[in-house]
Amino acid sequence: MVTRYKQKCYRCKKNYVITSYRNSFPVCYDCCKEELSKPVNDPAMKKFFAIPEDYYKQNSFLVNIKLNYLKYGTLTEKQIAAFKKVVEDIEHPKAVP
Questions:
Q1: Of the candidates 9, 27, 30, 72, which lies 20 to 30 Å from 18 by C-alpha distance?
Q2: HSE of 42 in the Cβ direction (CA atoms, 13 Å)?
Q3: pLDDT tens digits for the chain (97 residues)?
């Protein structure tokens, strides 16, 4: 299990972001919102990224995947599978004993 902690956003230095040692430059959702609002032209990917905005606020990994798609125009099968798994975990959380 990775230790998580709050750190101020790297861009705005106002909002706190839940992060770990793996993320050197944590960025809050508000700073990424403008980039995330760019249109997705592919109809399959448009449906793929059509999840509630709260999911993007909860998990920075989802933001990262969408930004990578907008930047490079494609995703690998592993990225797609990981995105689906994270969304499924958010929708149906497992009970921790």
A1: 72
A2: 10
A3: 789 899 999 999 999 998 988 888 999 999 999 999 999 999 999 999 999 999 999 888 999 999 999 999 999 999 999 999 999 999 988 876 6
Transcribe 79-94 into DSSP letters: HHHHHHHHHHHHHSPP
CA–CA separation, 55 and 39 (whole Å): 18
d(CA 66, CA 83): 9
DSSP string, 5-60: EEEE-TTTSSSEEEE-TT-SS---HHHHHHHHTSPP--HHHHHHT---HHHHHH-H
Distance between CA atoms of 50 and 31, rounded to whole angstroms?
Answer: 20
Residue with tokens 């790297």: 10
The structure tokens listed for 42 are: 């592919």
Q: What is the pTM of this model?
A: 0.84
DSSP helix/strand/coil, 67: helix
